[in-house]
Design a protein that fits this description.
single chain; 127 residues; mainly alpha; 76% helix; 0% strand; rod-shaped; Flagellar protein FliT
């Protein structure tokens, strides 16, 4: 059963890595569907990891050679994925901070224009 979970985990990790390579650091350049599919892969991978964790809990972990190879493959992919995820996280975080600062700045100007009256007239008096 552990081997099955490890194989699924490798499959999801490969898909995650391929999907991650297509994501750009600028949020505006990514399609929402692309980010949603990436998020879905992360969630599915998390489920597999928790199932594998449940399978391992309280049992001896004598790994077979096949399982050791799968784990080594996962470790190699993680070494590539983790820095890229960190880079994207930092980039997206900075962009969201800039957007929030821009919204806060625009809200400061709104009260100045809040009490403008559109009902009225201007009368020009000539002498």
């Amino acid at each position: 059963m552990r081997t099955t979970y490890l194989e699924k985990l490798v499959d999801f990790t490969v898909q995650l890595k391929e999907n991650l390579d297509s994501i750009k650091t600028s949020m505006d350049q990514n399609e929402p569907e692309q980010l949603e599919s990436f998020d879905e892969l992360v969630l599915q991978r998390e489920v597999i990891i928790s199932k594998l964790d449940e399978e391992i809990q309280g049992k001896e972990t004598n790994w077979s050679e096949e399982e050791k190879k799968l784990i080594q493959e996962l470790q190699q992919m993680e070494a590539v994925i983790e820095p890229r995820l960190r880079e994207l996280y930092n980039s997206f975080s900075n962009q969201l901070t800039k957007v929030q600062l821009g919204k806060a700045a625009s809200k400061k100007y709104q009260p100045a224009y809040a009490n403008t009256y559109s009902d009225g007239s201007f009368i020009d008096q000539r002498r």
